[in-house]
Design a protein that fits this description.
- This protein has 404 residues and is α+β, with helices and mostly antiparallel strands.
- Helix content is 48%, strand content 14%.
- It is built from 15 helices and 11 strands.
- The chain has helices at residues 3-12, 20-53, 60-67, 72-86, 89-96, 102-114, 122-131, 134-148, 151-163, 186-204, 216-233, 252-256, 275-281, 309-319, 360-367; strands at residues 166-171, 178-183, 246-251, 265-267, 287-292, 298-301, 335-339, 355-359, 371-375, 382-386, 391-395.
- The strands form 4 sheets. It has a 4-stranded mixed sheet, sandwiched between helices. Strands 9-10-11 form a 3-stranded antiparallel sheet. Strands 1-2 form a two-stranded antiparallel ribbon.
- Helix 2 packs across helix 5 and helix 10 crosses helix 11 (216-233).
- It starts with a helix and ends in a 9-residue tail after the last strand.
Length: 404
């Protein structure tokens, strides 16, 4: 279907009267039209740059702001996107056809900036982008870069990150608020994030303070601020000081031998570390290695002898990097473990086979009866249905920490 047909079909749809399938079809057509518009914008930017180089016309970033009504930031993104598409015609064709979105293109651009060797795999990456969501494609690019990048290069980057760790502090003259801005290497940052999450859970598990905002994102930011203050206000915090733990997910072959095509090295919040650093850290008491088999099956969770609540969360985090609802990209550390019903009854036991991470939004939908989530306890295949029993989404099993 060309873009003219797509626009015609989209114009004929009465969106307010659509059922679930109709809405999905409309969104698919929107993606196709938006992809074509983005490709035209990129072509116009490239042509404008050629004319500007010849002394005709002005700067394209300014032109995009004035003529296309883009913000300064969006104009810069459009110019950068056009430059990338000029060197990747296959990606440009996929965008024009609506097979990929501008989010895929921007993800590819950032990945190549981080690991230039990926530009040589653009054709394979275009194929992957066509079947993955932008978030999944970002993970795919990260893993592709992990395999292509020499371990020595990764170690040098980690050392640069350690040298760049810093915190800036200042007082806002208008509000009188004390402000902090920090940048941390992956090892330090992961420990800091984990301690804050543990403090928030310990302090506010049962009730939120009256000062907490109603907006979920603003509320979490507020609770993290109170948790940080609690950690520094005294040597004996109100709930007891947690030890900083670093959870590293790594496949067995990479841990014991070397990087390979299906290597997995992940931190809980999405970062990564050089394999050599992980091997060194695996001997430390405050590092919990979660070792995976070839199909992202959890082989071992730290030094635990039997499953406990914390170990269940670690194992679930490996198998479900995001909310268990297939289309939901909310990361695991922003979800809650929910006891799900499933096709084969478990006799009332509460174990890993009955639990899965669910984001706050979908958790509310479940308890309000708007959706039902079922999961097979063995394969962890998931089905999501509406209140009438209509199948909305299905996934054959957890995505796991593995290349897509």
């Amino acid at each position: 279907m060309d873009v003219i047909d797509a626009v015609r079909d989209l114009a004929a749809i009465e969106v307010d009267a659509c059922d679930h399938l109709g809405v999905r079809r409309a969104l698919g057509l929107v993606r196709q039209v938006e992809g074509w518009l983005a490709s035209v914008t990129a072509a116009a930017v490239r042509r404008g740059e050629v004319l500007h180089a010849g002394g005709v016309g002005g700067d394209m970033s300014t032109a995009l702001q004035r003529e296309a009504g883009l913000s300064k930031r969006d104009a810069r993104e459009a110019v950068a996107r056009a430059d990338v598409l000029a060197g990747a015609p296959g990606l440009a064709d996929a965008l024009a056809a609506g097979d990929v979105s501008t989010a895929h293109v921007d993800t590819y651009r950032r990945a190549v900036e981080h690991s230039p060797a990926l530009a040589g795999r653009v054709d394979d990456l275009v194929v992957a982008a066509g079947r993955l969501s932008p978030a999944e494609f970002a993970e795919h690019c990260k893993r592709a870069a992990l395999v292509d990048e020499p371990e020595q290069t990764a170690e040098k980057r980690f050392e640069r990150q350690r040298r760049s760790t810093r915190v800036k502090t200042w007082i806002d003259e208008a509000t009188g608020m004390y402000k902090l801005f920090g940048e941390f290497d992956p090892e330090t940052g992961e420990k800091l994030f984990t301690v804050l999450e543990q403090r928030v859970e310990a302090m506010f598990h049962d009730a939120h303070p009256a000062t907490a905002p109603a907006d979920p994102l603003a509320r979490q930011a507020h609770l993290r601020g109170l948790a940080l203050a609690d950690l520094v206000n005294s040597h004996t915090p109100s709930v007891g000081a947690p030890r900083a733990q670093l959870i590293v997910m790594i496949d067995l072959d990479t841990l014991l031998r070397a990087l390979h095509e299906r290597s997995v090295i992940d931190l809980a919040h999405g970062g990564t570390l050089p394999a050599s650093v992980v091997r060194r850290m695996a001997c430390e008491a405050d590092v919990i290695p979660v070792v995976l088999g070839g199909d992202s099956v959890v082989l071992d969770v730290g030094r635990a002898r039997r499953l406990a609540t914390a170990d269940q969360r670690r194992a679930a985090m490996v198998m479900h990097p995001t909310c268990v609802v297939p289309s939901c990209a909310v990361p695991f550390h922003q979800t809650q473990m929910h006891h799900l019903g499933f096709w084969a009854r478990d006799g009332g036991s509460t174990d890993l086979g009955t639990q899965a991470p669910v984001c706050i939004g979908h958790h509310g939908d479940v308890h309000a009866g708007r959706i039902t989530i079922t999961m097979d306890p063995v394969t962890r295949a998931v089905e999501v249905r509406d209140r009438l029993g209509t199948l909305l989404e299905r996934a054959p099993g957890p995505p796991g920490r593995r290349p897509k």
